[in-house]
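Figure 3 (text version): structure tokens given as input.
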């Protein structure tokens, strides 16, 4: 039996699924199986999968049930001692599995290994990088935000998976965060301090359904805070602030894709991020967000998106110069 089971839920992923699977096949650690759950695709996803020649690939097709349902079905088929999930439009660097497995083997008390992340757009262009170094008992940090970032990141021991059960299929969004919280409540985490995940935000990503992701995140937080010990209960308002602030950032990331979003809704999120954590008024980024929001009210979505893209590229250039 393979050491690692890689579970890929795929729904109408014809544009990205081949590149995603190739990023697994090219891993430096090769003792794995790839379990693709074709979640009712109506495009050429299944045809593309059937043309991939690799004995480690296993394909299972079902009627559409959503990503959480597909992941749960993949878990049922998995035979590895470790399990990793990969969304059908995300990518891994070649050493992802090797380094995460080494981290778990070096820390037998840990149930989850995660890495740093590149956030990319639908065209594969870098939007930002995300680096967190939380380790050991991380329930408090996980209450504040889903620092693992996306469902394509962690490598998880089978025992940890079995201890928390499957993903919550009733959640329309925030199901990843809910799952990481349940794992963090019972298990230690270990970090691989290297960017190994390419997390794609595209026009079809549920990350852009602003109201759904906000409301589901609040639901997940309300559920998780009830399990938190008394010394962590005070984190609820800080976490709420993060949820509203994240919703603003999603709006700015998707401006050219969702130009009809009510600016009053976005300003309301910005204000709530301050209301629940007044200390954010000391953060210059808070005012930068406000300026960007206000500019979206007077500029066309296309022009504003181009302006934000110019700011992003300038920032990247400065960071590269600093690193060199």
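Below: residues designed for each position.
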């Amino acid at each position: 039996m393979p050491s690692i089971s890689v579970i890929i839920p795929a729904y109408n992923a014809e544009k990205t699924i081949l590149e995603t699977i190739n990023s697994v096949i090219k891993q430096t650690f090769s003792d794995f199986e790839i379990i693709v759950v074709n979640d009712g695709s109506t495009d050429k996803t299944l045809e593309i999968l059937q043309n991939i020649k690799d004995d480690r690939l296993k394909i299972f097709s079902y009627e559409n049930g959503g990503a959480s349902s597909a992941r749960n079905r993949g878990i049922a088929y998995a035979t590895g001692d470790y399990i990793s999930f990969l969304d059908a439009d995300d990518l891994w660097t070649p050493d992802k599995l090797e380094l995460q497995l080494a981290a778990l083997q070096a820390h037998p008390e840990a149930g989850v290994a995660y890495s740093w992340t590149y956030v990319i757009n639908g065209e594969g262009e870098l939007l930002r990088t995300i680096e967190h170094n939380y380790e050991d008992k991380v329930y408090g940090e996980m209450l504040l935000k889903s620092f693992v970032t996306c469902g394509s990141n962690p490598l998880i021991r089978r025992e940890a998976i079995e201890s928390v059960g499957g993903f919550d299929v009733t959640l329309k969004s925030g199901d990843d965060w809910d799952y990481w919280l349940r794992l963090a409540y019972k298990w230690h985490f270990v970090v691989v301090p290297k960017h190994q995940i390419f997390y794609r935000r595209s026009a079809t990503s549920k990350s852009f359904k602003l109201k759904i992701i906000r409301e589901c995140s609040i639901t997940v937080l309300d559920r998780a805070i009830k399990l938190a010990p008394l010394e962590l209960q005070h984190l609820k308002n800080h976490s709420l602030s993060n949820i509203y602030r994240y919703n603003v950032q999603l709006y700015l990331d998707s401006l050219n894709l969702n130009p009809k979003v009510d600016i009053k809704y976005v300003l309301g999120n910005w204000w709530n991020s301050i209301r629940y954590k007044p200390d954010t008024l000391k953060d210059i980024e808070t005012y930068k967000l406000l300026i960007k929001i206000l500019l979206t009210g007077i500029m066309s979505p296309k022009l504003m998106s181009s302006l934000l893209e110019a700011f992003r590229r300038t920032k990247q250039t400065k960071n590269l110069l600093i690193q060199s």
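Strands lie at 4-10, 32-39, 57-62, 82-85, 91-92, 110-121, 126-130, 155-157, 188-201.
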